[in-house]
Amino acid sequence: MTNDTSHAHRRPHGSLLLAGLVLLLTGTAEADGWSTDFSADATGPVAEPFTSMMAVGIHFYDTSGDELMVGDFGEASDGVGLRVDGDDSSRLKLELDEPKTVVVLDFGGDDPDKVPEGSVAKLQGKFGSFWVDVASVSLNRNGKMDQRLTASGTATDKYRFFFELNGTALPVAEIVDNVTVGDTVPMDQFWGYSVDELSDDAIAVLNQVIQSDAVQDATFKVTSDCEDSTLNDIELCDAAKVSDTYDDTDNATWDDICTGTCDAAKVSCDAVCESCKVACCYGCIWGKTCSCSSTCKCSEVRDDCYDGCVSFAEAGYSIEIRSVKGLGDLTVTDVTDLAVGGNLNDWSSTILTMKADAKATKVKTTFHYRVYDGAIVLEDTLSYTVGEASGAGQLVLQADCERDAIYAQLTSFSLYDVEWIDDSWIPDIYGMSYIEDGIDELNELLNSALGGSLSSELLDVLNDVLEDTPILPVSCP
Questions:
Q1: Beta-carbon neighbour count of residue 182 at 10 Å?
Q2: Checking DSSP bridges between strand 175-182 and strand 34-36, what pairing results, if any?
Q3: How far is the C-alpha of 190 from the C-alpha of 202, rounded, in Å?
Q4: pLDDT (tens digit per residue) in 226-280
Q5: Contact in structure between 137 and 115 (CB atoms under 8 Å)
């Protein structure tokens, strides 16, 4: 019997009810502490300090006398356990070789004939001269080992465990088993299920719900003035449309009549220039100075005239993705990044979160383009096979003790940066760089538009179905 398998045979409806959940999947307790289920220890009375052969860094004491017993106590232990004998108000004290932040233990022996209603199991840590409560849970008073205490906080090397009512320790023989001490809450089971069981069933239920008529037939609008869409046939209207224009100097046209006039003006200017030069030379004979520099700028005049004759070709494009089909094939493939919040010792308030990865592999888009350059215009409506569209969301699992089941909610979902169209259709003779920029912008627009829709209206429908679809049954303590 080990920590990993000691509860494997105990399913809900008589299962070991584990109230301690993991904080993060960061390793086993043995890597940073000690763990024992007492299965390697000889049964019978043991002297103090008692140190299990499986956990050499934990030393157990009876705070009132010397009455520790190792043995199989039937339903009150998980196989072999450790009992604090004697009908006195003793506590089970744990002294550690070095301070640790985490203590996890299963307990039993809460006999209803000896434990009044309202009693609690309590774990305290010693800090300086004071014993401070670090974890507690209400006793279910059935005598069985079906509850667990988990403490995680400030490190200390002394802990003690006992049953209490209104601040007074009860004269009861407490029994503990599966004791783990370290700096990481051990990963074993949630609500009596292994991590793999929860993950597999969560994936199965999510995919069942996604394929349900309620989700597949649910309608939503990408924009307020757009027609209704479904997950498998999303109509985009103007939500994914880009356009741009620019002057194409490579394909500019020239007005021959205009340029001919410019050439003629230069000829006239040249004649005036020559006349000026002759007059200046004649004046020099009589000692006069003269300059024709302002009169003879004929080439500059002609070039300025040319600038008024050129006509740049207006070029540009518009691209619009009109629909996306195939996201109804969305399938959850994995759940990872486990974490827990809430009260570790209260099943109903413990919240398990994980990342849910999903993908659709049969996605296609329909898009329309118009590319023009001067008098040349090309336009068409095409289909593009996206292939795989991937995304992820946050999945939350919580036990509903009134309905005796674990339920899930998908609190968010976003598609990754999907390439909804590529540039393979662009005619080679046009401004590639301009159009490629537009395609990048268009893909960003559509990712944003679909992210908003998938994380709002459609998520509401999906969560409504999940709310009534149990992941697994559970029997809360």
A1: 23
A2: antiparallel
A3: 13
A4: 889 999 999 988 889 999 887 655 555 556 667 778 888 888 888 888 888 777 7
A5: no
What lies within 8 Å, CB to CB, of 443 at 6+ separation is 417, 418, 419, 420, 421
- Give the helix/strand (H/E) hosting 391: strand 376-400
Q: Count Cβ atoms below 10 Å from residue 414 Cβ, excluding itself.
A: 15
> 3 pLDDT band (50/70/90 cuts)?
very low
- What amino acid is encoded at 165 in this protein? L
User: Which H/E stretch holds residue 198?
Assistant: helix 195-210
* Pair of tokens at residue 354: 């994980």
Q: What is the pLDDT of residues 35-49, one digit of tens each?
A: 999 999 999 999 999
Peptide bond into 49 cis (omega under 30): yes
Q: How confident is the model at residue 1 (pLDDT cuts 50, 70, 90)?
A: very low
Burial 334-347 (b: 16+ CB within 10 A, else e): ebeebebeeebbeb
pLDDT: is 62 or 450 the higher one? Answer: 62
Considering only CA atoms, which of 238, 242, 241, 230 is closest in space to residue 453?
230
Residues 403 and 154: their CA atoms lie apart, in Å, by: 36
Going through 109-217 in order, the beta strands assigned E by DSSP cover: 120-127, 130-138, 147-165, 168-169, 175-182, 189-190, 193-194
* DSSP, res 76: G
Return d(Cα 397, Cα 419) in angstroms, integer.
32
Angle, vertex CA 455, rays to CA 324 and CA 469, nearest 5: 105
**Cα distance between residue 421 and residue 65, in whole Å:** 78
Which tokens is 266 given? 């230069």
- The candidate with the shortest Cα–Cα distance to 318, out of 426, 223, 245, is 245
Residue 193: which residues within 8 A CB-CB, separation 6 or more? 11, 12, 201, 406, 472
Which of 368-384 are b and which e, b meaning 16 or more Cβ less than 10 Å from the residue's Cβ?
Answer: ebebbbeeeeeeeeeeb
Are 347 and 477 in contact by the 8 Å Cβ rule? The answer is yes
Comparing 453 with 105, which gets the higher pLDDT? 105
**What's the Cα-to-Cα distance from 245 to each of 314, 424, 433, rounded to whole Å?**
7, 21, 12
Amino acid 327 reads L
Q: pLDDT-derived band of residue 457, with 50, 70 and 90 as boundaries?
A: confident
CA 73, CA 162: separation in Å to the nearest integer? Answer: 18
In this structure, what token pair is assigned to residue 35? 């763990």
61 token code pair: 């004491």
The separation between the first and the last C-alpha atoms of the chain, rounded to the nearest angstrom, is 23
